[in-house]
Amino acid sequence: MNLKELYQEIILDHGKNPRNLRKTDNFNKDAKGYNPLCGDKVHIYLKLNENKKIEDISFEGQGCAISMASASIMTSLVKGKEEKEAKEIIEDFLEMIKEKENLNTKLLEEDEKTKLMCLSGVKQYPMRVKCATLSWHTLTSALDKSQNEINIESKEI
Fold this sequence. Notes:
Strand content: 15-25%
Number of domains: 1
CATH architecture: Alpha-Beta Complex
Radius of gyration: 14 Å
Structural class: alpha+beta
Number of strands: 4
Order of helices and strands: HEEEHHHHE
CATH topology: Sufe protein. Chain: A
Distance between the termini: 31 Å
Strand order of the largest sheet: 3-2-1-4
Number of helices: 5
Low-confidence stretches: none
């Protein structure tokens, strides 16, 4: 199996069987995101403990396979991380989706980086970049409590 096939398999798996697709019990931070260009919607729920560690994270929503896969992968990777670690992973992912070839973070194992890299192919399709980044921008909003609902159309890609 070549790398492109592996990436497609990961996206299809997470798109069809999203992890953490539910509403977190006793969440204490949340945000909604919307992509009016294709109709993707996501609602991120976080449970941060007193040490700002992500005890639980989940999402509800609907959208294309890329949007759902991205939210699924994101929630799996940041669960159990400190808030500042999650922000570093978010920043690294968003930079990789825009311009970088690879991920630089030391906070993820190689197999976790592979899961994120499977979304790198969307760079070639600007409309798809917004699908892949919707949940990530929404997570940032939930962590910062900057907006209750973000519109990805207004985010600079």
